[in-house]
Design a protein that fits this description.
Blueprint lengths: L1 H12 L5 E9 L4 E9 H12 L10 H15 E5 L2 E2 L3 E8 L2 E9 L5 E6 L10 E8 L2 E7 L5 E5 L2
Parallel strand pairs: 1-8
Antiparallel strand pairs: 1-2, 2-6, 3-4, 3-7, 5-6, 7-10, 8-9
Length: 158
């Protein structure tokens, strides 16, 4: 009986649909892209354990230590490139809002013809994971989705 109740509680506490949202805005003046990656805190804690055996409580652990783990993880899972050039990411920081965590990143890209985004967040740890990417340039927003079958998407910079 206790096992059944425990299973029911776990089933209700974990969300069945796994989605992250990545908002990318091209800043024409600075020739950078500004990234806000939104994820469920629970998903991120699980992924950190799976990827590096690091157990982190994002709600209560030291912000500096958490930031180091998040910067490393996002650097491994999110890639920005164009014309066979991988762009370095500048970690800005993170913010927790309820059950969600936002990570802030900036990437100098110049004026490429297209941007290739690889978003592999949680694709190894969550079956059916979808990483929605909204790319905004010149007040126009385009949306594509990265999945286990398609881990990279391309946006034309026109």
């Amino acid at each position: 009986m206790i096992g059944l109740l425990t299973s029911m509680v776990l089933a209700f506490s974990m969300h069945a649909h796994h989605t992250s949202v990545c908002d990318i805005t091209y800043n024409e003046q600075n020739e950078t892209i500004e990234i806000v990656q939104r994820v469920f805190v629970e998903d991120l804690e699980h992924a950190l354990i799976e990827s590096s055996d690091v157990q982190v409580n994002l709600y209560s652990d030291d912000n500096t230590a958490v930031s180091v783990h998040l910067e490393r993880y996002i650097g491994e899972q999110l890639s920005i490139s164009s014309d066979d050039t991988d762009y370095p990411q500048t970690w800005i920081g993170y913010k927790i809002e309820g059950a969600f965590l936002k990570m802030f990143i900036e990437v100098p890209v110049g004026r490429p013809n297209e941007i290739k985004i690889g978003n592999r967040l949680f694709l190894r740890t969550h079956h059916g994971q979808e990483n929605v990417i909204h790319f905004t340039m010149n007040d126009v927003t385009l949306t594509q989705v990265c999945t286990k079958q398609q881990m990279e998407v391309v946006f034309k910079m026109e």
